[in-house]
Task: inverse folding
C-alpha cells in the first residue's frame, strides 16, 4: 500500500507500551529502549510518540530524557513519557489502559485543534504492544511485536498451565492486532504455522546490536580476562540454560574433543535452577575445571568477553532471533552456531553452521575452528561485515513504516 505523504496538516500519535521493559523481561527491555531511541529522530513533522511505562521505569526514562545518551533525540516535544497506571500482569489493565489510550488520543486531538499554526486534517492514533500480555480491546489500531513460540515448540521448558496461558493470551493479542511485526523470517513462519496469521498481516523487523558491540582494545580485553580469571584461549557460550539452548549436547560435544584441541569451555549467563542438566552432564563426564560456569556477568563486560574468546559457540535448537551470535560477530569473534530457526538468517555466510541435534556435528564444528586459524580470521572478517547489516536505525525505520501503514488504513487513506 502506498502511504500518504506527511505534511504540515497531518497529526499522528503513536503510543508504545513499554511496561514489559523491566528486569523480568531483559530482552524486551533492550528491544524497547533501542527501538525508541532509534525511532525518535526518524519521526516526521506532525508525528508524536508517547511511551507508557510503569512508575519506576517512567522515572528512569525521564532521567534519560534529561541527561542520558538518548536526550539529543528524545527531549523534544515529539516524545513524552507517561505512567501507565496499571500492571502488565493485572486484570485491571483490560479497562485502565483503554481508558488511558482514549484520554491520550483526546488530548492530542484537542492540542492540534487549538494550535492555529497547525490545522488538522486527521489524527489517527496507534497502540504498539511489544508483548502479548496487553489490553485485548485497546480501542485503537494496534501493532503487536512477536518473538517466538518456545512454549509450543519446547513444551518441556514450561508448565502445562504456562503453555495454555501462552496460547490463550497470544491468540487474544493477535485478534486485537491490526498488524504484527516479527523479529525474524523464522518467527514469521512460526506465527503463520501455529496461529494461522495471514502473511500479509506480518512484517519482519529484525533486531540489531548497539555500537558498543565492536572489537575491543587489547587493554580492555585483558582487564576483563583478568577479572574472570580466563585463560588465553577458551570456547565461549553466553545465554540461559533452558532446554532449547541445548547445553547438555554442547557438553557432550566438548567432551569428545581430543585433549590437544580442548581449551576450556566457558558458559556464562543467567542460570535457571530448574534445569541442572548441563552441570550434571559435566560432572558425570568428569570434566572438572575444563568447563566453567560463570553465571551472570556484567553487561558492560560482554563486548570484551566476546572478543577475548577464541570462538563463540551457540548450539541452540531454536531462537526467535539469536542476538548473542550477532553480538559475537559484531565484536569480531568467529562463531559456530546452529543451522536451525532464525540463526541462518543472522549468520549468512559468516558463521560455521552445524546441526544442533548431532553431538558429532557440534564437536566437528568446534574442532575445525580451533584447528584452523585462517578460517577463524575469515569468519571474524565476515562476521563484522554481516553484523553491520543489522542496525536499530533500520529496525526503527521498518517499524515506523508499519506505524504509518496501520494508521493510514485506520484513517481510511
Result:
Amino acid at each position: 500500500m502506498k502511504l500518504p505523504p506527511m505534511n504540515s496538516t497531518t497529526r499522528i500519535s503513536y503510543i508504545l507500551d513499554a511496561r514489559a521493559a523491566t528486569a523480568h523481561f531483559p530482552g524486551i527491555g533492550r528491544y524497547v529502549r533501542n527501538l525508541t531511541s532509534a525511532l525518535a529522530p526518524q519521526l516526521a513533522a506532525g508525528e508524536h510518540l508517547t511511551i507508557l511505562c510503569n512508575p519506576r521505569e517512567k522515572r528512569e526514562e525521564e532521567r534519560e530524557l534529561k541527561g542520558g545518551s538518548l536526550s539529543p533525540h528524545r527531549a523534544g516535544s515529539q516524545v513524552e513519557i507517561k505512567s501507565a497506571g496499571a500492571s502488565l500482569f493485572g486484570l485491571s489493565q483490560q479497562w485502565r489502559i483503554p481508558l488511558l489510550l482514549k484520554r491520550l488520543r483526546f488530548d492530542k486531538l484537542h492540542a492540534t485543534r487549538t494550535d492555529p499554526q497547525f490545522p488538522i486534517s486527521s489524527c489517527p492514533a496507534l497502540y504498539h504492544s511489544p508483548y502479548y500480555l496487553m489490553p485485548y480491546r485497546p480501542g485503537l489500531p494496534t501493532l503487536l511485536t512477536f518473538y517466538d513460540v518456545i512454549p509450543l515448540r519446547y513444551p518441556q521448558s514450561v508448565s502445562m498451565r504456562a503453555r495454555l496461558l501462552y496460547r490463550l493470551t497470544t491468540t487474544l493479542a493477535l485478534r486485537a492486532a491490526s498488524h504484527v511485526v516479527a523479529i525474524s523470517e523464522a518467527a514469521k513462519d512460526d506465527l503463520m504455522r501455529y496461529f494461522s496469521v495471514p502473511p500479509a498481516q506480518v512484517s519482519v523487523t529484525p533486531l540489531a546490536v548497539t555500537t558498543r558491540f565492536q572489537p575491543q582494545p587489547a587493554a580492555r580485553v585483558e582487564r576483563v580476562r583478568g577479572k574472570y580469571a580466563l585463560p588465553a584461549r577458551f570456547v565461549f557460550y553466553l545465554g540461559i540454560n533452558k532446554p532449547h539452548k541445548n547445553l547438555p549436547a554442547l557438553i557432550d560435544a566438548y567432551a569428545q574433543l581430543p585433549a590437544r584441541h580442548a581449551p576450556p569451555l566457558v558458559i556464562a549467563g543467567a542460570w535457571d535452577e530448574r534445569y541442572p542438566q548441563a552441570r550434571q552432564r559435566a560432572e558425570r563426564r568428569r570434566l572438572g575445571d575444563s568447563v566453567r560456569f560463570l553465571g551472570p556477568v556484567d553487561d558492560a563486560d560482554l563486548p570484551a568477553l566476546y572478543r577475548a574468546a577464541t570462538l563463540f559457540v551457540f548450539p541452540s535448537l531454536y531462537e526467535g532471533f539469536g542476538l548473542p551470535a550477532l553480538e559475537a560477530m559484531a565484536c569480531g569473534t568467529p562463531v559456530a552456531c546452529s543451522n536451525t530457526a532464525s540463526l541462518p538468517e543472522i549468520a549468512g555466510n559468516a558463521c560455521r553452521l552445524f546441526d544442533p541435534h548431532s553431538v558429532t556435528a557440534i564437536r566437528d564444528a568446534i574442532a575445525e575452528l580451533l584447528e584452523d586459524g585462517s578460517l577463524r580470521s575469515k569468519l571474524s572478517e565476515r562476521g563484522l561485515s554481516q553484523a553491520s547489516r543489522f542496525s536499530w536505525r533500520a529496525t526503527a525505520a521498518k517499524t515506523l513504516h508499519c506505524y504509518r501503514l496501520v494508521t493510514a488504513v485506520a484513517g481510511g487513506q
Observations:
- The domain at 218-387 is CATH 3.40.50.2000 (Rossmann fold).
- The first strand starts at residue 12 and ends at 17.
